[in-house]
Design goal:
four-stranded mixed beta sheet, 12 helices, about 475 residues
């Protein structure tokens, strides 16, 4: 028995145990700071949700404000909870009208511009409506508010984490095509940048190990959940972001150290490892659901503010998220292109035996890839949570297929291909809303993927391989 080898493994195991204990302690401390949540509407195959949040001009929750939902033969009433949140479940897709009872607003508060919003919602989707308040009676809603116009303040989207998003829906902004076109293009660019962060890690792992990691989507969910927990402890979004990146990087290192490297040493086939990743994904989803249930976790509890640039209206969180994602993507591209680590990673992805023969520490490269890839996915999940105004246990799962589509479209195993593929997928799924119903936008992206692969099977940036 090689005692030197045993001794060398002890520090690694001790470090892994310490990292696990650190993460468990972080969860335990954070649960003590969890706020009480009212029952949230959770979209599924038979349910859609209309929901939002109302706050006073001072930023305090507007409690017990009465609202009414009408449309499709239904008429329901609800009121805001202690956090100012409200929701309506619907069982039939279509257009609905939400009306605020202005008599139930807090003293000195008035509905600004309008007290009625029209929303369109589909099953398995959430639609949000914003009702800003004002303390100026001159800005109060008129007696018979318009039901359509440029101030709808609604936005629909997939996933369970979308609520109270005040970005204007282009479909309700008028009959002009081009304003809607540019609004959807901006939303597509935003989605593409956030998808790119997750797709890069997925592509790097596949390029260096050949593993199609189905648990990668749960790294997005975990990043958003950690951001929510960190905000409960720190109250500072920038500090929370740093915590997320550090903890997720440690979790990536931990994953490879205790799971994936031992499986590689046992020479499991890629199919077996892929099945393990599916099982790992299911385990993580159940853990998230066990601790958080179906609650929508709002990372930033403040009411989102909007900024209009060149006719495009997005929330402040969206602009910040896009900026952070762009900086991170550029940094990854520069590292992969000009650093020793980037060259080593590309060498391992291109020809692992030759890289090993050239003196490259392949295991170290793979460990670094897992660390960087998981940290980027966690950052992506946090930014998605900010943009969608919430994160849920299954948010990452909703984006798994899009992540794989981006990686395959750009060229499997190529970093730059994953970035370009994600940008294309993001633009397609958002701009498809101009011509297609919202529930078909993902189908449009996958159709584009199939067409491209029929013409260029290796993807946009992949290389042709000779077989046989």
């Amino acid at each position: 028995m090689n005692h030197g080898t045993i001794r060398s493994r002890i520090p690694m195991r001790a470090s892994a145990i310490a990292l696990l204990a650190l993460m468990m302690s972080f969860f335990a401390l954070s649960f003590q700071a969890l706020p009480a949540h009212a029952a949230d509407c959770t979209p599924d195959a038979t349910t859609g949700c209309v929901q939002g949040i109302i706050k006073t001009t001072a930023g305090d929750p507007a409690v017990d404000v009465e609202l009414e939902l009408t449309g499709k033969g239904v008429q329901e009433a609800a009121s805001t909870d202690a956090n100012g949140r409200w929701s309506f479940p619907i069982t039939e897709a279509g257009e609905y009208t939400v009306t605020v009872n202005t008599d139930s607003l807090p003293d000195g508060q008035y509905a600004k511009a309008t007290s009625t919003r029209d929303v369109r919602v589909a099953l398995f989707e959430s639609a949000s409506a914003l009702f800003p308040l004002t303390d100026n009676p001159d800005e109060a809603a008129i007696a018979t508010p318009p039901t359509t116009g440029t101030e709808t303040g609604t936005e629909t989207g997939t996933g369970a984490g979308e609520e109270a998003n005040p970005e204007t829906t282009p479909s309700a902004s008028g009959n002009s095509f081009w304003p809607r076109f540019w609004q959807q293009a901006a939303s597509g660019l935003r989605m593409g940048l956030l998808l790119a962060l997750g797709a890069v890690g997925l592509s790097l792992v596949f390029g260096t190990t050949g593993l199609s990691n189905f648990a990668h989507a749960e790294m997005l969910s975990l990043g958003g959940i950690l951001a929510f927990l960190a905000m409960q402890l720190t109250g500072n979004i920038w500090v929370s972001g740093a915590i997320v990146v550090i903890v997720m990087a440690a979790f990536g290192w931990f994953q490879d150290a205790v799971l994936w490297k031992p499986l590689r040493k046992k020479r499991l086939s890629l199919t077996q490892m892929m099945i393990v990743s599916i099982g790992f994904s299911i385990v993580l989803q159940n853990i998230f659901q066990f601790f958080f249930g179906a609650n929508i976790l709002r990372i930033d509890p403040s009411t989102p503010k909007t900024v209009t640039l060149l006719g495009v209206t997005l929330t402040v969180q969206s602009y910040i998220a896009m900026g952070i994602a762009l900086v991170a993507i550029i940094a990854v591209a520069l590292v992969m292109k000009y650093t020793r680590f980037g060259r080593a990673t590309r060498a391992v992805a291109d020809n692992r035996p030759l890289a090993e023969a050239s003196g490259i520490d392949v295991d170290r490269v793979i460990r670094s890839v897992w660390t960087v890839g998981v940290s980027l996915a966690g950052l992506s999940g946090m930014l998605l949570g900010l943009v969608l105004n919430g994160i849920a246990w299954n948010t990452g799962w909703h984006y798994l297929l899009l992540l794989f589509a981006a990686v395959i479209l750009g060229g499997i195993g190529t970093t730059f291909g994953a970035i370009v593929g994600a940008l294309i997928i993001g633009l397609v799924i958002e701009m498809a809303n101009i011509w297609l119903p919202g529930d078909l936008k993902h189908a449009a992206a996958l159709l584009i993927l199939i067409v491209v692969l029929l013409v260029r099977p290796q993807g946009l940036f992949g290389r042709k391989e000779r077989i046989g």
